[in-house]
Amino acid sequence: MSTRDLLTPTEPRTRAGLGVAALTALVVGSMIGSGIFALPSQMAVNAAPGPLLIGWLITGAGMLMLALVFQTLARRKPDVDGGVYGYARAGFGNYIGFTSAFGYWVSAWIGNVAYLVLLFSTVGYFLPGFEGGATVPAIIGASVVLWTVHLLILRGVHTAAFVNVVVTIAKVVPILVFIAIAAVGFQAGLFAADFWGQQTLIDGAPLGDTMTQVRNMMLVTVWVFIGIEGAAIYSRRAATRRAVGAATVFGFVSVLVLLLLVSLLSYGLMAQAELAGVPDPSMAGVLQNEVGYWGAVFISLGLIVSLLGALLAWVLLSVEILRLPALENVMPRALAAENTHGAPANALWLTNLCAQALLLWTLVNESTYLSLILLASSLILLPYLWSAAYQLLLAARGETYKSSNGRTRDLIVGAIAVAYAVWLVYAGGWEYLLTASVFYLAGTPLYLWARRKNRLPFFTAPERVIVVGVALVAAVAVAVMTTGNLTVL
């Protein structure tokens, strides 16, 4: 790495941009991690087929609006790079842009640790000593995988993106095989036996009325769509802005179809109460019930490949979300420095050192996959809200609209996306908002350092109010933590 490799916002690209295939693989690769492999039992615990269909309809519509937000902004604001970071900064100022980028970055590397824990928990299916993913052998293995990915990305983002395309294809194959076998073995009578869940008992308890079931299953779907913004994060490296929008929508629709088929077809293979009791990864147990032991082995191997692919995709996203703010004086400039292969080396080292430290923490504190992924997901919800609000703001002002053509549509899409993003934040829970404020406050010195180094003003008057608000909420969070009523991990 040398200082001559440091890019500025005005410097032209010297490498071919990422095309639709590579960007779509980033979206699919970041969205398909572990969630889909646990979907059959997680859905069965919460809802019968009827409420499940309603919930998927609402969730699909809400996430489609967010996908359309990223597509529209890529087209109408081609000068804004960085997806959730760039849109938050353009719409609401430097500090909100910083919190969006910093929260997304923390979310990414915490999520990577969650993937590593589950990866070696799955390896424990084959090799004793790795069970649970938080044993000494598991942490050693996870560390080896983490730094192997690190070395791969140091060889260049384009090389890593190509590998991600291959891995994404490989991890989708087991899911398609499951869908094909489930479609052949599907029993319509079993699927429709208690369509609205009025007689089914899960662990002796009823599922509740239709809306209760819909709400409960939607809480699960919050986490399986994280990564929809993957192409937008890489907008600066994209061949065209049209490729960003196309990859976002195509990737979202592809994953939605897979999620729908996996969750719905499972109800035609096993009774719902039985399906709810299948241990994770429940897709493996369902396939074993259908075809025998080899089915569980096949899906477990698919999950391992999927987790490796998701890890690669999210390490790529986490370093990119540091590089762009550094180019625009929102984070320390050193985080934008690239090595001779075009990889943001400093950002990569910082990201993976943090992940390594958290891996060691999980060994001491036995943090579970679920607790890690919930924290990671909560930190990414506000960036979604800022992006949706930015599109709504553009449409309301008429900015970038030379005529009224398309403006009404974008107002409706933006309003629905904002409403859905607010619901996501609400569904995440107040405890995670409190925790997010602590991370934002802890990261603020990086922002101050970058602004001071470049002799730029720290905050505008509205931003001072925001910083004080973040500090007050963080103080409340710390106070609640000291009472034991709030735990981070």
Automatic annotation (TrEMBL):
Pfam families: AA_permease_2 (PF13520). Its main location: membrane. Keywords: Amino-acid transport, Cell membrane, Membrane, Transmembrane, Transmembrane helix, Transport. It is found in: Cell membrane. The chain crosses the membrane at residues 20-40, 52-74, 86-106, 136-154, 161-186, 217-234, 246-271, 291-322, 343-363, 369-396, 408-426, 462-481. NCBIfam families: 2A0302, arg_ornith_anti. It comes from Lipingzhangella rawalii. It is a multi-pass membrane protein. This is Arginine-ornithine antiporter. Belongs to the amino acid-polyamine-organocation (APC) superfamily. Basic amino acid/polyamine antiporter (APA) (TC 2.A.3.2) family. InterPro entries: AA/rel_permease1, Amino_acid_antiprt, APC_superfamily, Arg/Orn_antiprt_ArcD. Gene3D superfamilies: Amino acid/polyamine transporter I.
